[in-house]
Design a protein that fits this description.
Length: 68
């Protein structure tokens, strides 16, 4: 059984911790992996570096924009 890597999470500087501390945190310090977690619950999802790059590319191209 492999040991889980120690991710070092960072939060966007635009995240506000007023009365609603729900932010997305991202860790990219483990080679080949990206972890994303919810700051309030600690739930974490891991991606490969390729999956993460593909997601960011799609987001920048508007693939996930919601229609009104």
């Amino acid at each position: 059984m492999s040991e889980r890597p120690d991710f070092e999470f960072r939060t966007s500087s635009t995240c506000k911790y007023n009365n609603d501390p729900r932010c997305v945190e991202v860790a990219t310090n483990v080679p080949g992996k990206v972890a994303v977690r919810h700051s309030a619950t600690g739930l974490t999802v891991e991606f490969t570096a390729v999956e993460w790059t593909d997601f960011l590319t799609g987001a920048k191209l508007g693939e996930f924009d919601l229609s009104a």
